[in-house]
Amino acid sequence: MSLTFYDIALAPPVEKTSCSPNPWKTRYALNFKKVPYKTTWVPLPDISKVRVPFNIPASRKFADGSPYHTLPIVSDPTTGRTIGDSFEIAVYLEEQYPSSGAGELFPAQDLDFVFGRELELFAPIAVADVGEDGAIPAYVRFNTNVDSAFTAHAQLMGGGLPLDPARAQETKTEFEKRIGVPWDAMVVKGEARGELMKSFEETLSGLASLYRKDASGPFLLGTRATYADFIVGGWLRMCQGTLPGEEWDVIKGWYGGIFGKLHEALEVFAQMD
């Protein structure tokens, strides 16, 4: 039986505009593990009413403590399990289907990337509760730091989100609730945009250094992909789907083309069901 994977629907055709980072982390992991699944596409304004009936705790909260309902969700009819956090979904796939697919999602490796800058985050960051055993805690920290680094520069991406024209205003209103600022505040132009791009490049320098350690590339472990690459790759999908083409080309070329090569290599795990 196939798993059901709940992903965020943006502008039609949704398979072409899909660029939400956390669902992409899950799609990469599902395809890597070769676990059969079917996608249910959920428009962003409908996420709460789809998620709440599953009775899954929100993986993050707004500043006022209210739940921040988001996707992905994976429901596995074989085990009766439903999981609603991208990291916890990956852990579940590794535990439930250890011998499936292209290998282990969480092999031990150096993941020493730290986001330590004082920049405003426009959405709460999820921190998975997966215990302290083995290599997984290092991946938890890596996920949190990568999410923080990209989220701190979300103003570059927010204004370019591909919205369904039929529900554009409704979606903007939902985003305003999620990020806590007016939609127009997510659009940065001119000199300020140039400065934010410069900050983005500087912030990713430590991440690029990790990718340089194995010259065989394009993954952190050279020719072997892991969930850490899917974490970064999910955000690169967000960049591709929301940034002007010329800016996406610039990012792909940073640090000798590390991020462009990673994005291209992840295509093998990007197939839609």
TrEMBL record:
Residues 10-101 form the GST N-terminal domain. Coiled coil: none annotated. Gene3D superfamilies: 1.20.1050.10, Glutaredoxin. InterPro entries: Glutathione-S-Trfase_C_sf, Glutathione_S-Trfase_N, GST_UstS-like_C, Thioredoxin-like_sf. It comes from Penicillium arizonense. This is GST N-terminal domain-containing protein. The lineage of its organism: Eukaryota, Fungi, Dikarya, Ascomycota, Pezizomycotina. It holds the Pfam family GST_C_7.
